[in-house]
Amino acid sequence: MATRKEVAEHLDLSLVSISKLIQKGVLDVKQGRNPMDLELCRKNYINYLRTLGNYNKRNGTGDIAEEKTRLTRAQATKAELEVSELEGELIPATLVQSTWTDYIANVRAKLLALPSRVAHLVITVDKYAEAELIIKEQVYESLEELQKNGIPAKYRQRNVSNQSDLETTTESEDI
User: Fold this and answer.
1) Do 165 and 137 contact (CB within 8 A), yes or no?
2) pLDDT digits 0-9 by tens, 91-140
3) Which residues pair with residue 36 across a beta bridge?
4) What does the pLDDT read at residue 106?
5) 56 forms bridges with which residues in the sheet?
6) What is the maximum span of the chain, computed from C-alpha positions, in angstroms?
7) pLDDT band at residue 25 under the 50/70/90 scheme
8) Which residue, 46, 43, 41, is CA-closest to 28?
9) Torsion, CA 111, CA 115, CA 119, CA 125, rounded to 10
10) Which terminus of the chain has fewer CB atoms gathered within 10 Å of its CB, N or C?
């Protein structure tokens, strides 16, 4: 058993710090002349410091082997993604988004320009069917851009070669 002063010296802390730790419930104090257990105070203070540092033996936080395992797993995942991208199976989301944004913007512009392009053609026809045909042709022309596969040009060639390889393999197995 020890006094507050002895505990402070043992833990290399001031008496004020010991009082604060007692108030927080980190260190236990009993009644009597020597109210503190030096061994228990040391263990409680170490556990308190571990808690502050987010270190816990049970969950393995801070274990170098576990951190190396996490790093290795992350590196393997990254390598798999890079291989998938090189093989044309994976396309970066930002590239797909920008490609489709361009497609949609072009179609929007064509559809908004449709009335001015079609008005003079439709006004000259006498029959409803002819006007409908002219308008349909113009709409189809505007929508034609969306018939493309939507794969960015950089990846389009890889995808075509992968498809032809797949078709060749499938044909070979049929024979």
Assistant:
1) no
2) 888 888 888 888 888 888 988 998 998 998 888 889 999 999 999 998 88
3) 2
4) 86
5) 61
6) 114
7) confident
8) 41
9) 50
10) C
Closest Cα to residue 42, out of 20, 61, 15, 18? 18
The full DSSP string for the chain is: -B-HHHHHHHHT--HHHHHHHHHHTSS---SSSS-B-HHHHHHHHHHHHHHHTT-BTTTTBT-HHHHHHHHHHHHHHHHHHHHHHHTTS---HHHHHHHHHHHHHHHHHHHHHHHHHHHHHHHT--SHHHHHHHHHHHHHHHHGGGGS----HHHHHHHHHHHHHHHHHHHHHH-
Residue of 69, 2, 71 whose CA lies nearest to 18? 2
Q: What tokens were used for 70?
A: 């996490």
